Amino acid sequence: MNRREVVFALLALGSARAARAQQSGRIYRVGVLNAGRAPGSADAFYALSQEFEKLGWVEGKNLVIERRFAEDHIERLDALAAELVRLKVDVIYTVGTLAPLAAKRAMSTIPIVMGAAGDPLGSGLVSNLAHPGGNVTGNSMMVPELGGKRLELMKELLPSLTRAAIFWNAANPYSANVYRTTRDAANALSVALQSLELRKPEDFDAASQAALRERAGALLVVEDPLTFDLCAQIAKFAADHRLPAIYGLKFYVQAGGLMSYGASFADLQRRAVVYVDKILKGAKPGDLPVEQPRKFELIVSLKAARGIDLKIPASLLARADEMIE
Q: Are 152 and 206 in contact (CB under 8 A)?
């Protein structure tokens, strides 16, 4: 048997095993663990079900999805992770960095898929990206230069910018990393960067008032479940005070924000579901390499720009992947 024949034989064997698994009548259970709120993430998790269906996994037929949300109270994550363990789920799909950390603390055998973790290596989720070993794998959002790139885009939008403020979740290791790289970029660009630390939703009012007192000329928002749940409030605050703001994900612009630059969450989610599919069909998480973002997108809201009488430079519009009217 030559190499080509061997490859086709292995593919056929894998397909046959997958078919037997789905025809056996077994119902698989996938746990979903998120530090954020369910209402704010509803659309994203509806899309999650659609991604599963594309691979033959249908809720109520051969799949049950157990969704657990900490509602921005990270102290609840450990109990929610333990609950998923008691339910004997086959895989746990996590969002962000804090959720997979809680899941890993709760068990060492159930596979954990990171839907979009911040810094898997630095946070201790895995010991090696290419060969993670253990029970954790999935997607990383860690691209250190993103914070600096967003500030560069803001300087392109506002060439005279000298003061900016950044909202970030001080309880999230990923957010802390992005904050540090943004601070370094601010020093290089001669922009004074004001840190607006958030740990819970109630911190937003004090942080936003601090931005006004320091006369910030622009806002940067680091993406994570907490700031995602606050995205509508942040966008309204920015609009009310005519502050141009840049965010990490498209969701924030859809909620009224001006501009975002970062990894495509939709792409990360699709790829994470593929991880879950492979594991349900017999793959070991420790054998599946952790992947970094492949697709990045610049989203600009012309509607939000008009609301604060801001003209978007043609150079930015030409590079935008999507413009929201």
A: no
